[in-house]
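[Discussion] Sanity-checking designs against the backbone

I'm trying to build intuition for which residues belong where. Below is a structure token string of 607 positions. I'd appreciate it if someone posts a full sequence so I can compare it with mine line by line.
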């Protein structure tokens, strides 16, 4: 059970806070030297903060005495000089302390923030595909959770060192000084604090639910925005700008309502706290004046106690802010550490390094269900012969891409075994296994950057000549030369077909013994398809190739064809054999042939 799951079960404030502290500790620990320095400065600062009230007390009492002496001005000058010197020196000390505190506090914040962000990135990269397939973890949701989490945590760290700690240590020392001056005055100040804490805690408790809701709304809003940007062509072509705008507006209104509720509650509690604080000031004044009139202390004590009480009550007046920040951190950190501590999502691999791979796959009784519960493969058993080309055929949703996902070890079968060269896929070290696999999809991701860098992604240490050669093999080179900036052109500006060729060039550069092609020529024009087919035919030699394609020419050439239907393997064999069986393959083949209008084509070619 992760810390966060525990937090959800025992959803009490202090337990959540403890969990937050535990989670944050490893990130703060590396800076313990700096933290120790900041704490020392804080302690010195807290003592320095009591100097002024004590001096004021001393000054007023001495002035009162001087007034009773014959030559008060002459005697008073010395006192004035000493007091001014101490006050100025104290102020200089304070400035130095605050500078050090702020500087170290900021430094700790920046460093912890960058460590948290990097950790999130590093962790995400280790997670299984199934983690990203979960609806909660889609782009936008995940992004908001991580960004908000880091933001709120670093704000908490910063404020802890800049606000919370100095204020509270000042408060504790001021309280000790008050007790030292008079026990009843100290007690009076002490009594106010728990009341204030209680009210602040109630406020935090009331606000927590709304803040949680707000977090969900923010994630949805972010996701919605990203969706709009991604699907702007579809939105415009269906003239759905208004509908999309309304969806966002509804969410915006929900958020607005939520934020107003939060503010309303905050104002009610703020007023209550302010009143309680004022009661404290009044009580301190009454008690001190009584003690002064009673002759138990000098008149300077009135001013001193007010100033000391201000030192005690300063953190109290900040308490709501601190609670807000801690709450924010608790809410957003919850989601953040959920992402970070998801040990179950970490992709585990075996110890065997895939070397000199021959490329023979055995799939035995494999079942697979996606995280959303969709069963995509049922009891699939097949062999992918090494150095042969296998085509996977089936209607949409039959499970073809899913099978490739399992062969790449992106997902783990529910049960059943997949072996490569006689070794279970599970036992291979993931990176080394995937180094031996080249994957070209129907729609391939193009990274932000130049055409050159996008091809280079296939082999980061490739030479310039190797990149150009791969580009030539993918029939991309000539087209790149026509671009205004050649290989330095932003790859995202290329057409779908050109981007597809980048993916194929990457494959040539990677040069792996196993190749999976998931509709590799789907977005290419006829000439490019023919070119790429020739290139792929050349690269197929001596490699294990699995091709998913709706293109008959690519299917009929395969050595073996496996036919999937609704997640079941229904037929296997050569094109000729499967055609003769007159089953699912024949049905798909005939339909594809009919869609090509072969009769008309043959007539045309004959003429
Ligand atoms: N990430 C996912 N999460 C949940 N279900 C999925 C996911 N990917 C695919 N599926 C479902 O699994 C089933 C098989 O999908 P798959 O992509 O393997 O089909 P396919 O045969 O490759 O189809 P197509 O030819 O349309 O690409 C489908 O019903 C699909 O809806």
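Best answer:
Here's mine. Compare freely.
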């Amino acid at each position: 059970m992760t810390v966060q799951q525990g937090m959800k079960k025992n959803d009490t404030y202090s337990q959540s806070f403890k969990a937050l502290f535990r989670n944050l500790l490893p990130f703060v620990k590396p800076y313990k030297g700096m933290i120790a320095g900041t704490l020392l400065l804080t302690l010195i600062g807290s003592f320095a903060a009591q100097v002024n009230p004590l001096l004021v007390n001393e000054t007023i009492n001495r002035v009162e005495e001087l007034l009773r002496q014959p030559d008060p001005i002459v005697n008073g000058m010395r006192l004035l000089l000493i007091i001014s010197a101490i006050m100025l020196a104290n102020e200089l000390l304070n400035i130095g302390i605050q500078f050090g505190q702020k500087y170290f506090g900021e430094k700790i914040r920046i460093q912890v923030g960058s460590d948290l962000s990097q950790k999130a990135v590093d962790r995400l990269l280790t997670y299984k595909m199934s983690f990203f397939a979960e609806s909660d973890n889609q782009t936008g949701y995940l992004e908001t959770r991580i960004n908000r989490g880091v933001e709120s945590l670093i704000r908490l760290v910063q404020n802890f060192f800049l606000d919370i700690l100095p204020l509270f240590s000042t408060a504790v020392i001021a309280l000790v000084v008050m007790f030292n001056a008079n026990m009843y005055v100290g007690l009076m100040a002490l009594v106010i604090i728990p009341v204030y804490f209680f009210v602040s805690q109630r406020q935090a408790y009331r606000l927590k639910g709304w803040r949680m809701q707000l977090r969900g709304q923010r994630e949805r809003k972010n996701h919605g925005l990203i969706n709009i940007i991604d699907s702007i062509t579809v939105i415009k072509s269906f003239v759905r700008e208004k509908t999309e705008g309304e969806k966002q507006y509804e969410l915006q209104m929900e958020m607005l309502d939520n934020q107003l509720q939060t503010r309303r509650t905050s104002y009610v509690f703020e007023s209550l706290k302010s009143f309680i604080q004022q009661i404290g000031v009044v009580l301190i004044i009454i008690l001190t004046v009584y003690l002064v009139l009673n002759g138990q202390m000098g008149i300077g004590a009135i001013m001193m106690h007010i100033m000391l009480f201000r030192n005690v009550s300063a953190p109290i007046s900040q308490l709501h802010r601190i609670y807000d920040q801690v709450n924010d951190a608790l809410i957003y950190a919850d989601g953040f550490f959920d992402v970070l501590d998801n040990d179950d999502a970490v992709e585990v691999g075996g110890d065997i390094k895939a070397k000199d791979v021959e490329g023979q796959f055995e799939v035995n009784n494999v079942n697979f269900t996606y995280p959303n519960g969709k069963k995509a493969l049922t009891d699939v058993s097949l062999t992918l012969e090494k150095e042969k080309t296998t085509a996977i055929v089936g209607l949409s949703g039959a499970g073809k891409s899913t099978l490739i996902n399992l062969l790449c070890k992106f997902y783990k079968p529910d049960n059943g075994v997949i072996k490569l060269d006689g070794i279970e896929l599970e036992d291979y070290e993931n990176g080394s296994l995937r180094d031996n696999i080249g994957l070209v999809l129907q729609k391939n991701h193009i990274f932000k950057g130049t055409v050159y860098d996008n091809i280079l992604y296939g082999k980061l240490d490739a030479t310039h000549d190797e990149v150009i050669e791969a580009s030539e093999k993918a029939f991309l080179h000539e087209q790149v030369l026509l671009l205004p900036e050649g290989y330095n052109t932003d790859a995202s500006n290329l057409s779908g077909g050109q981007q597809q060729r980048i993916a194929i060039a990457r494959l040539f550069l990677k040069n792996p013994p196993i190749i999976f092609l998931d509709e590799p020529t789907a977005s290419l024009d006829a000439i490019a398809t023919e070119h790429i087919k020739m290139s792929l035919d050349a690269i197929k030699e001596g490699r294990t190739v699995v091709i998913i394609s709706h293109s008959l020419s690519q299917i009929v050439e395969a050595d073996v064809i496996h036919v999937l239907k609704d997640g079941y393997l229904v037929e296997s064999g050569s094109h000729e054999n499967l055609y003769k069986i007159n089953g699912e393959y024949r049905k798909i083949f005939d339909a594809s042939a009919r869609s090509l209008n072969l009769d008309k084509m043959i007539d045309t070619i004959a003429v």
